[in-house]
Amino acid sequence: MEVDNWLAQFRNYQPNDFEMIYDNWIQQSFYKVDPGIKEKFFSKLDDWFFHTHAFLQGTSFQNEARGRILTVGRVLAENIENITDMKKELSVDQLTYIAEQQIARGRLYSFAQGGLTGTGGWLLLGLDYPLMMVMNIRAVQLVGLTFGHEMNHPYEMMISLKVFHAATLPKRLQGAAWKDLINEVNNKNHPYIFEGEDRLTNESWIEQPLKQAFKSLFILTFRKKVFQGLPFISIAIGAYSNYHLTRQVTDFALKFYQYRHLKHEEREG
């Protein structure tokens, strides 16, 4: 099974010396921070993610994407009336086909937005990180919707945010995050209420914002190296970096919802 082959990368992954030193440095750095300040910082960050998820549900972009998903679904199975019918009426291959359409569009948006950021304007650089987080949260939502899960339900909202969080972790930490996600959906007791740990961010997640800071630094460094009036190196850095992150997030999300769908079919069968 393709998902099993993908999961093998986590089982076989061995962190190198640099990653181990980096982990230790992060832990030591945050150990020195006042626990109250640390708690407040990550709590505010989590709140921002929750509010962003809720905001996206009411946007016209999301409603239009939802309509496109249902339209394609009805072409494949005329009995589909709402999102939850998707997982009942379509096979995992059909759902994957629809999800990949959404994913391709999301990656294109990230590539374009990253290239625009690479022009080096301070406003664009300042907006880049929150925009990337919003776009990737939305990408996870669309994959979840395609596989028949209503994102406005508290349980599915929390699962999609956990998927987003896991997908943005360093690769050496994704295996443990994947296991936690699978345990959560396998041991679900209530269809709408999330009963697990509702915290998202912590010290281990800080690597992602640090990568963003380095990307911004590189863009600023190369923005004056122009060719025919454009800073092509900075544009390439921004476009590739944002595309790479969205590819990482959407690959993880697609594999998670595929795995979840297949396991549900096994139980129902």
UniProtKB/TrEMBL annotation:
Protein name: ABC transporter substrate-binding protein
InterPro entries documented for this protein: EcsC (IPR024787)
Domain of life per record: Bacteria
